[in-house]
Amino acid sequence: MSSSTISKQGAAGSAASELNENKDYLGFGVGLRSQHFPEIMACESLPVDWFEIISENFIDNHGYGRHVLKELRSRCPIVMHGVSLNLGSSDPLNWEYLEKLKELADFVQPSWISDHLCWTGILGHNTHDLLPMPLTEESLNHVSERVLQVQTFLGQPILLENPSTYLEFRQNELSEWEFMSLLVKKTDCLLLLDVNNVFVSSFNHGYDPLEYLRNIPHSSIQQVHLAGPTRAGNCLLDTHDQPVPDQVWELYKVLLEKTGPVSTLLEWDANIPSFSEVVAELNKARLIFEGKPYQQLENVDINQASGAFSSPVVR
Amino acid sequence: MKESCLKKDIQLRQLQNWLQEVLINRGDLYQKLLGAQHQTNFTLEEAIKETEQFPAIERINIYASGYIMRLVEALKAEYPLLCKVMGDEVFEGFAKAYIVTHPSRYTSLYKLGAKLPEFLEETQPKGANCPDQIGLFKIPAELARYERTQAEILLHHGLEEYFYYPSETSITSLISIHSELLQASPCLRVLKLEYPIRTLAMSLHLNDTVTTPQRTENWVALTRKDYKIVSLQINDWQAELLEALKSPAPVYRALENVKSANVAEVLLWLPTALDFGLVYYPK
């Protein structure tokens, strides 16, 4: 990338120095999972501040899930998180999907809508995985243009999440935080920073997660994800199947110092425990936010697993 | 990696094409990579960075194996009884073959398994002629159809939002049903099956010992009530009547399309059909 086209260091640097002025603070939430529907519907008083739904699980779903959603939307804020927007794909945008996403948003009235900085397929295929982008100027221009189109269509800024990645393309010209900083600058989109994904990707690619956290534009971070990864040989996999490890809590603590209060969500998508256990894990984030001594938390090691895979199916 | 080996002019589309080919091609990882190279003229070394601890082949394998495992898990969740009947190993074999043959083109995983029943039908060996052999292949295909139908019903529009009138069996109400406008539930599905799949499914649910059922043609009506699946064994005239009520019609008119119905029998059955959510009074 030529220095005359985009001053990438400048973009990241100036954004990072801004103070957080996020007025859309929702508090602490969890991902809404069908396994927890009975417990949640039986709650007189919800023990979480808000829920995040996987948009695709509710598009074209007119069964019990839609009923639960109808009940919950009047009780607490809900945000919509998608996995099939396919923003980074070189295919044309899927307008049929976008129409359905908008229909769901009209029903849910979410606080915001998010998806990922990734692609999921080309030539009409969907791999149902969050595949890594080549971090190039071409990609940046391509994704920026599509983010602008999506935001215009939905009538609101969208949030983009940093995915966990296991490979980097040789053609990369930018780091992920540089790419995201420039994307924010070009589109005014917001960020969903997955702290676990920063940890996983930095481990897998050998960069410093603190450098990532220093350079991401803090004022654009509207939401944070927390989750537990799995160790598989020489790498970490984003499995969302266990408690948040100490390293991720440490990074979360560092991030909070930079962002101030930021809506925080715990994801747990495989080996899902009871709702109360998920809430107990979320409450560790509250402790950290309240500045309670970190030592109050249990030490959590990252489990090893040979048959694990990333980005589990969420129902 | 020498700089001269790098293809700097590679476009986004080419890189994505290469990675997707690695994921969805048939074969083991090396065959997938060869296939992708053949189709895109692009190699692993040209595409992926690596470190000594974490070589490029292991990095790409996370995506290639994760792709299959994730979708197999999704199919297992949609077809738990089929998986129980086949056993994990056989089910996974079919699921992998299905995923490679019908890569997903849907934004929702709900649609991933839509063609699995047909896939099982199509992959039955030709020439099987003894009853046990035929059943061995036909029963899983019919069970898959049964489970897929259930999955579709759970997501479809149902009658839960609809105001429900408890049915009565007084003579007056039975006579009034005869001229009332009735309609099949929007999520009702009627299956014609060659094996007693409903009984088999119930036994599997209850973890009962299961033996290969004998061939016996039958009808099953599947619908949803209070967001739960209702499954009923029905007979020929009941299936015909439900078919005739796909569009709203007075019962006497719908009965014109039913060959062997006894009116008294029909009137006595309709309250049950209303109670189970097979039919309703459209507004």
UniProtKB/TrEMBL annotation, chain A:
Name of this chain's protein: Uncharacterized protein
PANTHER family: UPF0276 PROTEIN HI_1600 (PTHR42194)
Source species: Pseudovibrio denitrificans
Pfam family, one: MbnB_TglH_ChrH
Automatic annotation (TrEMBL), chain B:
MF-aspect GO terms: DNA binding
Name of protein: Putative DNA-binding domain-containing protein
Putative DNA-binding domain: residues covered: 15-120
Keywords: DNA-binding
InterPro entries, sorted: DUF2063 (IPR018640), DUF2063_N_sf (IPR044922)
Keyword DNA-binding: yes
Keyword DNA-binding among record annotations: yes
